[in-house]
Every structure is written in structure tokens, then in C-alpha cells.
Design a protein that fits this description.
The structure is a single chain. The chain has 9 helices and 8 strands. It has about 260 residues and is α/β, with parallel strands linked by helices. It has a single domain (about 1-255), classed as Metal-dependent hydrolases (TIM Barrel, Alpha-Beta Barrel), CATH 3.20.20. Strands 1-2-3-4-5-6-7-8 form an 8-stranded parallel sheet. Helix 4 (about 105-125) links the parallel strand 4 (about 90-100) and strand 5 (about 125-130).
């Protein structure tokens, strides 16, 4: 089995799948993808996303507010902890820092990030970290707030080997999206080769970042297989090895009670 460890099922265009999320999951199952972590980006859409997870046994979810979200309301630590008590919620996030898309004084972004880490520590659930053009500050805040107590994942990782090592030293896993299949992603491919398989996850971040050979098209959970196969090729191991290792990593981090 393969796991899509970061997807946005509630954002997909369902028309190609018979108008239902069930169609998306069936297409993924045909490619051996059997588990899905649907990741929150704001509080306004959270109730509907949670209902989606409740309706499908193979789907779990997170709660959090994306670092670029400005239109909605800010979460408090207490609210995040309360929402995370639902049995379908396995993580806090996505949260983090994005200095690429946000400009100006970003103290609000850093404070939001700290609140998410404090919530994760209080409820004992791992973090899903978004970091773009902000690697140093992301690692500093994770360290200062004691995020290693709960760990988590550096989602859609695009950093270098030194950043990956620093994140793993703090207890975090590294997740690869379709970006690793792009010809221009040489530095990222180096990370995928060097890092221990037991600290690796794979994801789609769908509907974004479709891997080669579907680059530029809407992404879907079934396509996580292309990312896993590409990494297997980079590392000169068989696909089954990468699938088993990344699924085991997912279980350890997000669902330790999930049946083997």
C-alpha cells in the first residue's frame, strides 16, 4: 500500500471522477494508494473537510491555518486543541512560514506558527510544516518552541541537504511531492537519495504540483505513485521498497495504531 500523506481532497474538481470523492479514492486504489491525509488550510472550510473525512474510512484529516491565509479568522491555541480531539484529526497544520508569497512585516505569520506548535504540544499530535523561502526561521521557531516533543513532517520539501538534516535532527520527517520529478530539481533529488528511507514520506499536495508525466495538469492522489516510483529509480531500489518504507513512516508519525 502507498499513502498520500498530504492532499486537499476538498479542493479537487470532481467532475472527472463522477462528481464524487469516492471516484477519486477508487482511482487512487487502482494505483495501490490506500490511505489519505486531507490537510486543512483555514477554519472556515474545516467543517466541510471534516465531514468528508468522516464519510470515508480511508481518509483522515488535520486542523490548522495555512501561513498565507489572511481572509479568515485566526485560530487560538485552545480552539486548535479542541478541534484536534476529533478521532479523525491526526495532525496540526498545515502551518509554518512562507516568505515567498507573503510580504512586509510577517510577525503575524510567525506568531500564528508558534500558536500551532503550542497547540500540537498540548494535544500531543504531530505538525505538518509548510516552509517556503523561510528555512532558517522555520527551524529556529521549531527549536525555540520545542516542536521536537511531537515531531511532524516538512511537507512538500524543497530545501537542501543541510536543511533536511537539521529538520530530521529536530525529529521531523521529510515529504516529497511531484516537484522531485521535475528536471530542474537536482538539489532536491540529491536529498531524496541521501536521506534515510525510514524518515521519508510521499505526497501529492493535490490538486497542485502534479508529477511528471502529468506536470501542469490537475493533480490527484493516484499520482503519488509516480513520485514514489521516481524516488525508487533515483535510489536504485524497487518501487515496493519505497512504498513500504514511506507507508511505515506515515504510520509511525500519524497513525501508530493503524493495522499493518
Amino acid at each position: 500500500m502507498l499513502v498520500d500523506s498530504h492532499c486537499h481532497l476538498d479542493m479537487l474538481d470532481l467532475a472527472p471522477f463522477g462528481g464524487s470523492v469516492a471516484g477519486v479514492l477508487e482511482a487512487a486504489a487502482e494505483q495501490g494508494v490506500g490511505r489519505f491525509l486531507c490537510v486543512a488550510v483555514n477554519l472556515e472550510d474545516f467543517p466541510a473537510m471534516l465531514q468528508l473525512a468522516e464519510a470515508h474510512a480511508r481518509v483522515v484529516a488535520s486542523v490548522g491555518v495555512h501561513p498565507n491565509e489572511r481572509a479568515g479568522r485566526e485560530p487560538t491555541v485552545d480552539e486548535l486543541v479542541a478541534l484536534a480531539q476529533h478521532p479523525k484529526i491526526v495532525a496540526i497544520g498545515e502551518t509554518g512560514l512562507d516568505y515567498y508569497r507573503s510580504e512586509g512585516d510577517l510577525d503575524w505569520q510567525r506568531e500564528r506558527f508558534r500558536r500551532h506548535i503550542r497547540a500540537a504540544r498540548r494535544c500531543g499530535k504531530p505538525l505538518i510544516i509548510h516552509s517556503r523561502a523561510a528555512g532558517e526561521d522555520t527551524l529556529t521557531i521549531l527549536d525555540e518552541e520545542g516542536a521536537g516533543a511531537v515531531g511532524g513532517v516538512m511537507h512538500c520539501f524543497t530545501g537542501d541537504w543541510a536543511t533536511a538534516q537539521a529538520a530530521m535532527a529536530l525529529g521531523f520527517y521529510i515529504s516529497f511531492s511531484g516537484i522531485v520529478t521535475f528536471k530542474s530539481a537536482r538539489e532536491l533529488q540529491e536529498v531524496a537519495v541521501k536521506m534515510p528511507l525510514e524518515r521519508m514520506l510521499v505526497e501529492t499536495d493535490c490538486p497542485y504540483l502534479a508529477p511528471v508525466p502529468h506536470r501542469g495538469k490537475p493533480n490527484q492522489p493516484a499520482y503519488v505513485r509516480y513520485t514514489a516510483e521516481f524516488i525508487a529509480g533515483l535510489r536504485d531500489v524497487d518501487y515496493a521498497t519505497v512504498a513500504a518504507a514511506t507507508t511505515a513512516s506515515y504510520r509511525r508519525l500519524f497513525e501508530p495504531g493503524l493495522a499493518q
